[in-house]
Design a protein that fits this description.
By secondary structure, the chain is mainly α. About 50% of the residues lie in helices and about 0% in strands. It starts with a helix and ends in a 15-residue tail after the last helix. The relative contact order is 0.06.
Length: about 60
């Protein structure tokens, strides 16, 4: 039987450099913003495809 600790040690031995990130691997701020915009547009397109009946009530009611 393998224990979690033994499995973690085995994985760490196989992939020693996977957790290390160098400064050259970081994407630029413009790339991050462009990626976020693409994800937002994809999510908005998915939401547009969902049909919700008119009689559907919201899951909460705002009462000031």
């Amino acid at each position: 039987m393998i224990r979690r600790r033994d499995l973690a040690i085995a994985i760490a031995a196989v992939v020693p450099g996977a957790a290390q990130v160098t400064s050259t691997d970081k994407p630029s701020e413009d790339d991050l913003i462009a990626g976020a915009r693409e994800e937002w547009k994809a999510s908005a397109d998915k939401l547009k495809k969902v049909k919700i009946p008119i009689g559907t009530e919201p899951s909460f009611i705002f009462r000031p």
